[in-house]
Amino acid sequence: MKELFKLSYSKIKEGLGKGDFSSVDLVNSYYDRIDESQPKIKAFLETNREKATNQAKISDERRRSGKTISEFDGIPVATKDNICVSGEITSCCSKILENFRSPYDATVISRLKDKGFVFLPRTNMDEFAMGSSTENSAFQTTTNPFDTTRIPGGSSGGSAAAVSAGMVPIALGSDTGGSIRQPASLCGIWGLKPTYGRISRYGLVAYASSLDQIGPFSNDIQGVVDLFSVLNGRDEKDQTTVTGKSFSSTNVKPKSWKGVKVGVMPTNKASDWSPSVLKKYEDMKKNLEKEGAILKELDFSVFSYSIPIYYLIATAECSSNLSRFDGIRYGLRVEGSSGKLEDLYVESRSKGFGDEVKRRILLGTFSLSSGYYDAYYGKAQKARVMIRKQYDSFFKEVDVILQPTSPTTAFKIGEKTKDPIQMYLADVLTTSVNLAGVPAISCPAGIDENGLPIGMQLTTSHFEEESLLSFASSLAQLPDTTITLPSKIQ
């Protein structure tokens, strides 16, 4: 029973259902793994074995008495530190919320509790979800399980690393410009960013409200399918949620690529891609053609504007959303030496926020200021429509789009921290998806010559998650896409 942590999500679900092992066995196996790996990976912000074990005991009792509340009863899940759990600290990895305990559950947490999932501790992240490496956390830097000298991606790097390292089979993250897909790619696992509005954001601490979306990580595709099936749907507490098309997990299954129209990127302008990512992309396109797919090269030139559009909109919304953290209502309060209200604001925010958060607040405040609103934020919103129309045009021609998730594999810790622009460019292939609100998933696609994972991103039209996840299942059956997750952390 000691190495249950090596099982895929599907095997865990099957084994619990058959009674091959208990939820307590499972939780203890994961905690043994956490005790062994956490000092090197630093995926979690705390450990609370007793609380998780008690939840597992209650789940096992339900199974013994024939009162199992769902097929997921007793499965462990981890959550990112910006998703509210009643009575638990929700700090967003920021000093300003270091001791804040949420008075309520996020809708996604309520839905998981209703199904009997067992909660492992909160995972590390870039402060307020602002970053691509988890180096912006106020508390610790998470490392990549494949090479602990490298970053796991961000901002949901803690959740991705925890799944990749076998510390939990599934986890939740949030994706504003690639914060689920990019770390999923760099850590060799599955990560889904759903259609905007498919999953409630109630209880997600906002970074950029028109871009944020909660989504799942898993060590196999079935975990993504199951979590999405539980979490998606209309929520009266979040008026941006929509019913959209119905979703049935039983309809998600591998299908033939024959006749499928796959949109691909021209690679003659991929100068910033690492050679290993470029080779993997070319090999995958050839394999798809062998399977009968029809490849169509699309014009992605409009998407070259995605990074500036994204950072104008995201920082403007972050400036507005983070204005509530002022030292008055909740969170850190540093009394100003002068006793003036303005000084209290300045001291609390100066000491509570990290450098990257301050940078984005300043940029967003500037773009919203009098005389600059129309020139920057207003123009970015108009350009955003252009991105969405481009996707609408694409999906009149193709069924699915295939791209690399990240232009490179995981880079070294500290490599890009002194150059924010280079860090921002890590999201160059993912931000357009959030601007358009379409769904996308990062799928494991093999490893490079250094043993580092490479991920491929599939994108479909709005509310086409059934097709998207079916395509992802099919992609996993192509040659040389399997990634074996680390059994020992070096």
UniProtKB/TrEMBL annotation:
GO CC annotation, single: glutamyl-tRNA(Gln) amidotransferase complex
Domain of life: Bacteria
GO BP annotation list: translation
Record domain Amidase: where: 25-469
Top-level class of the enzyme under EC nomenclature: ligase
Reactions performed catalytically: L-glutamyl-tRNA(Gln) + L-glutamine + ATP + H2O = L-glutaminyl-tRNA(Gln) + L-glutamate + ADP + phosphate + H(+)
GO molecular function, a single term: glutaminyl-tRNA synthase (glutamine-hydrolyzing) activity
Any matching Pfam family: Amidase
Keyword Cell inner membrane found: no
Subunit details: Heterotrimer of A, B and C subunits.
Record's protein name: Glutamyl-tRNA(Gln) amidotransferase subunit A
Organism: Leptospira ilyithenensis
